Amino acid sequence: MQTRTVRLHAERILKIEMAPVPEPGAGEVLLKMAAGGICGSDLHYYQHGGFGPVRVREPIILGHEAAGYVEALGSGVSGLTIGQLVAVNPSQPCGRCRFCLQGMAIHCLDMQFMGSAMRLPHAPGMFRDHLVVPAQQCFSVGGNVSAGEVACSEPLAVCLHAVSRAGNLVGKRVLVTGAGPIGTLVVAAARHGGADEIVVTDLTDAALQRAQAMGASRTINVAKQAAALAEFEADKGWFDVVFECSAASPAIRNAIAAVKPRGTIVQVGVGGDTVVPLNMIVGKEILWIGSQRFDNEFAVAVELISSRSIDVRPIISHSFPIDEAVAAFEVAGDRSTACKVQLTFLP
Asked: What is the pTM of this model?
């Protein structure tokens, strides 16, 4: 059997190509893929050939946010049934290195992450009609939700992990800088975590409207209303926790100015080197925490989406069939209209 794949060869050279599909082996599952979301890293690969030190050095099948239906089971697989909708966890920690053994699989020294160009050879991703994957990476879905919603499990897991890094949010005042797909899902995760007030900043009205739909208390377009942040910066800051989701230098400075003394900034957005006001970080005794990927949060994300305890539908802005992948990536690059752009596969 052959499958269509979305393979990136170099910057803006994206092709639909055929590839063989193996039979599922012991402990593996054959999936008929249904929906896959274009992540910020996918977009960076397409637009710039990589991000930071991570570069595309050979052709790579993109995609690490996806859901599909079980089509065949390899020997020894239990707990899954033919026709079942599943979310696919793209993370494959080794389980043997010192960080895995210390309960920090996120920092696995031999992590295999689907659709990533961090290693050579690159790890192939999930933008394809059929995929064979270890059964342990498949999480069954309950409820009456769409495959597109289920494909949001991976980015929601990222945001649940970020929220967990901040500690207890019950009753807290929260600022989210950047209202892209991750920022808007951080809003939903923070609201689910009990935050009392959630203010969101961004440069576009469309993004801020989605943030409101996901649970924001107030939104500020800093391109139009930069002075509106001044009230939160007075008297050494207002917010207990800031989730910085843009990696933009002005947003980072705003986060530092608006968080209260001994408040917490969780850095979710990633980018290159930037200049930060160290004196203010020291003077306000700010706790600045990094957050990347997820671990056990993936299963939690699937459960929350299955029950619509977190409803991800407002962030899904566009859907394209696989043979229109180039158009999908072009639309995904337009933040004035797009949020989560997804590909669909075989009916």
From this structure: 0.95
